């Protein structure tokens, strides 16, 4: 995971916005569905991919959903990703006809290891940053590399002081 501290900008996503954007992703995916029009399964990249994957699976009426879990390790400046939970590989095979969903691509490290496992799968994210964009087949919104995306599951409503105090 990239450190959020050096990021210049923040892009705050509400549940409502995420729902709309994940639906927009499903809409785009309809047009690139495999021959016959059906994806065999959705694979969510945990944990951030689970909410978008649920929405996409609902919109496209895909009932088979599995997960892959990828953990990033930081060894000083070098960061690498490892699969710590695989989907059912009998189901997934080489990924043909399978849709992989994540909330965003940033550096592309997560998707690199996922793609190695399922080279023929279609990879979709809701948001994308330029460094990782080429790892994704379909996405909805691009933000700049120096933007940190804040997701609704990491946020809480909070009181804010008015601009002018009493
Ligand atoms: O393109 P990358 O640089 O690899 O970054 C993108 C990944 O980082 C975040 O997941 P994270 O590993 O923080 O775990 P989480 O989904 O459980 O929050 C995000 O949900 C993506 O999966
Ligand atoms: O911009 C981001 N937001 C949340 N999680 C992330 N993981 C990598 N980049 C990001
Ligand atoms: Mg993630």
UniProtKB/TrEMBL annotation:
Binding site for xanthine: 106, 149
Protein residues bound to Mg(2+): 103
One Pfam family cited in the UniProt record for this chain: Pribosyltran
GO terms under biological process: GMP salvage; purine ribonucleoside salvage; XMP salvage
Annotated residues for binding of GMP: 106-110, 148-149
Start and end residues of each Phosphoribosyltransferase domain: 14-159
Main localization category: membrane
Protein name per Swiss-Prot or TrEMBL: Xanthine-guanine phosphoribosyltransferase
Lineage: Bacteria, Pseudomonadati, Pseudomonadota, Alphaproteobacteria, Rhodobacterales
